[in-house]
Amino acid sequence: MKVLDLQCPHGHGFEGWFGSEDDFQSQLARGLVECPVCGDTSVTKKLSAPRLNLGASVPAESKPREVAAVDPQLQAAWMKMVRHVLANTEDVGGRFAEEARRIHYGEAAERNIRGQASREETESLLEEGIPVMPLPIPKALKEPLQ
């Protein structure tokens, strides 16, 4: 088993477990390795050294430093907020812009919704005075666990 420290272009760090380096490279090439926070598949390996337990502690100045690391507490708070949104909204999918307009103009019952909208649709909604906010949700959270 190979445990790798991975990172997406947005600085989200996470761990991946693979059978071998070839297994990691194969899954990466097929787009199967994605950031659990933002869903980006442009994942890279972070530099890491094998851990050797020789019984002596390593001096603090020789320990590797993290570059562009995201605060784990901030990442956990973001995930908590995303889970709250998922639990308290109705997923209307690709009908988001249409349904947001219907709610805004009183043609549908007022409720919290989420879904997908293009950049143009989002800009149009904002121009009409309909408050919307993009929220990237990782694929793993959109689907039920099996």
Briefly summarize what is shown.
This is DUF1178 family protein. By secondary structure, the chain is an alpha+beta fold.
Largest sheet, spatial ordering of strands? 2-1-3
- Would you list the SSEs in sequence order as H and E? EEHEHEHEHH
Number of strands: 5
Roughly what fraction of the amino acids lie in strands? Answer: 5-15%
Describe the oligomeric state of these chains in a short phrase: single chain
| Structural class by secondary-structure content | alpha+beta
Averaged pLDDT: 82
Annotation field: number of helices = 5
Task: State the separation between the terminal residues, measured CA to CA.
Answer: 23 Å
- Low-confidence parts: none
The major beta sheet can be summarized as: 3 strands, antiparallel
What is the molecular shape? elongated
Return Rg in Å: 21 Å
Q: Residue share in helices? A: 25-40%
How does this model look, in words?
- Pfam families: DUF1178.
- The structure is a single chain.
- By secondary structure, the chain is of the alpha+beta class.
- The radius of gyration is 21 Å and the shape is elongated.
- It is built from five helices and five strands; from the N terminus they run E-E-H-E-H-E-H-E-H-H.
- The model has no long low-confidence stretch (mean pLDDT 82).
- Helices cover 32% and strands 14% of the residues.
- The relative contact order is 0.14.
- The chain has helices spanning 21-29, 72-87, 96-104, 119-127, 139-142, and strands spanning 2-7, 13-18, 44-45, 90-93, 113-115.
- The strands form two sheets. It has a three-stranded antiparallel β-sheet with strand order 2-1-3. The chain has a two-stranded parallel ribbon with strand order 4-5.
